[in-house]
Fold:
Amino acid sequence: MEGNAQTEKFVYDFAEGNKDLKDLLGGKGANLAEMTNLGLPVPAGFTITTVACQRYLADGAQPPGLAEEVAEHMAALESTMGRRLGDPGDPLLVSVRSGAKFSMPGMMETVLNVGLNDESVAGLSAQAGGNDRFAWDSYRRLIQMFGKTVCEVPGEEFENALGDAKTAKGVRDDVDLDADDLKQLVDVYKKVFAKHTGHEFPQDPREQMNLAIEAVFRSWNADRAVLYRRQERIPADLGTAVNVVAMVFGNLGPDSGTGVAFTRDPASGEQGIYGDYLQNAQGEDVVAGIRNTVPLEDLERLDKKSYDELLRIMSTLEGHYHDLCDIEFTIERGKLWMLQTRVGKRTAAAAFKIADALVDEGMIDLDEAITRVSGAQLAQLMFPRFDLSGDPTALTKGIGASPGAASGQVVFTSAHAVERAADGVPVILVRRETNPDDLPGMIAAQGILTSRGGKTSHAAVVARGMGKTCVCGADDIEVGTTSFSVDGTTVSEGDTVSIDGTTGRVYLGEVPVRASEVVQYFEGELDPAQADDPLVSAVHRIMTHADDRRRLRVRANADTGPDAARARRFGAEGIGLARTEHMFLGDRRELVERLILARTDEERDAALAGLQPLQRGDFLDLFREMDGLPVTVRLIDPPLHEFLPSLEDLAVEVALANERGESAGKQETLLAAVRRMHEQNPMLGLRGVRLGLVVPGLFGMQVRAIAEAAVELARDGRNPRPEIMVPLVGAVQELETVRLEAERIVAEVVGDSGVDVLIGTMIEVPRAALTAGQIAEAAEFFSFGTNDLTQMTWGFSRDDVEGAFFGRYLELGIFGVSPFESIDRDGVGRLVRVAVEEGRAARPSLKVGVCGEHGGDPDSVHFFHEVGLDYVSCSPFRVPVARLEAGRASVESAGSDNR
Ligand code: ADP
Ligand code: MG
Ligand code: MG
Structure:
């Protein structure tokens, strides 16, 4: 530790960094360095590393050596700029900006104008040619940002004081306050500051800077940042870098201003000029929606020279990053400065269209293109759209900022959104504009509607990042506290609205939905060559390449003919899991009850004989739909009493009958059976292979039905490929016992029909994974049941944990995401790895797949690729997601092998 502190470098000048150092310098710092080295106009500055932040957070103090390094870099900055920080006569001012590896829009803190105090405010005015108004405006902004960020003074206090100043003057905009007004406002701000902190606003520029740096470090752990990271699955221990940047001023008058821009439309992916500009303004003003911005095109009229330069820079950046970039810039008296860039967030549709377009433009190849999109984005494109065939009339139209079709009850605060959503009510969060404190409500809501702000507003950026439907800038709407009104219609809290994040339309009531274009394409209803929407051809091209590249096969979990048919249209190459239990429900209950209640072998055999032809019919459907492809049928898994009425219901029925003096007859018999079979821990009880071994003939009946169905189809000239899967095996002896009987039945039924039936097992009990070598002797395939395997490895009951303690576990960082959602690589994953290796060692031809929920989870698919499974199996709707992720996994692992 100590030796390390001497050699460790905590501070990098912008000229020293580059875009690949995001881990160390954060995204903002790495890209500021990259732009600096590209020769773009970036104000001078330096970056304090994320490692310094991690050390500060761990030790509660700045690591030794940091202060000295900052002082050195500050001195260098001062000499570059020819000014000293906070010099009373001619001050250098800086911004102190957060910037983590992953962009977390508005989640952490930045303080502008550091270095101003009661004296240097005059020096700043002199620098600006006697512009007192500008100097006092900058000073009041410093006290406001510093107070809020560094000293936790409630932001409203400052906002109210600013509001009061405007009211007193009878003006609407802060630009209408003059130097004297702002000077008075500074006095008020200082009082607010002193009242809340118990001390005066610090006048020493170095102290200001130092405190601001520590505040940025601490902002990594602000509640909203923690919440955002959890939502976006960003690790909690990365820390933020701190960028200290020489200030440039957009608030010097009408020839100055500040703006944000995208090199392409982040909502549609189309090329063009996208951005917002605000004259005579500083930093946050644009995103905060304080005054109305103008579209970026208008800058051409206001300042042609800067506009042209900006367009040139945007094209340089696209050419350099080979991707959509977003940009923050400021114009100081006609001089353009670049303050930030990064590869920009975009909607799912834009991601596909941009990747496709970049291939056409020769900027990237197809391999790169498939890594530019994700399964999560594809899943979003498969969400339903509004069905407008009923011609619903729109209440109003805003800007479609993040696509999707969302309906829900209107709520006006983040807290209400969270409350109602917790009761399972879908809600639409309506705000004038959102700010980072609204994050919990935005997460809870189905969609977000704002009346102010454009595509770059907080609501838009955050919603796009989360893939949440958002309409912003619906400026006809008057948003109140418990209702909003538009064109004479009042919509109150609790009323239902529907918002379309693509068109920006807002409808009263619930609008019905239909399948998206992308789903229609997968269904084979839309020819990609003919589709009007370039999205469909982009998806087609990317999916085709992913299929070309992937090594993993993708099957579906499907129990019925129609599900199997859809899965096949979506690209499934077989069924990885056909559950047989639902086949025991409905009008077959009667037979199942007879089976369970049978007191003699004859009674039991009769019940089984009744079920057998029905089962054969079920399998015929599946094999027919999956002709030529493997179908894995799992023998019955759940405990039998699940097929009987509940203990409580039966007990009540019987009691009532007794009261009426009637005989409860059959119900009484059932009740006795349910009592007899009652288990304390049914998950660990008589189910799966255990049931098969205890109830004679049950598995045999299923095996016979499978084999007969296959033979019937084969005789018809088809090619059924059944695979019989035994659930919940923990010891090879269990499997061997079942296998012996199954082989006998199969041989008897199949005869010379040419049907080949594989027999294998689920690996879902840890012992099975640990004895995989033995089990493989009796199994032609393994299929990892990762739901049960996760449950039994962790000892978590999957039906109980989510509400009970997972929230706390996630908060504590015990895991970043539920192990039922994404495979726990270290624990459960290790069992999978061991079982694959030992299973294949014992039987090289062993087929290995996975059929738990994880089969459709993007991260897990990458893991299954790495450990060398043959296939993943997931629900039909996830099949395209798994295909895409399997393609990405191949490309990415090929890439890392080359390195
Ligand atoms: P965020 O990550 O929330 O965007 P930033 O650190 O980018 O925060 O800063 C907030 C605002 O202040 C942005 O609009 C940015 O462009 C502006 N800003 C930051 N540093 C400077 C500077 N040195 N000069 C002028 N404006 C700045
Ligand atoms: Mg920024
Ligand atoms: Mg299971």
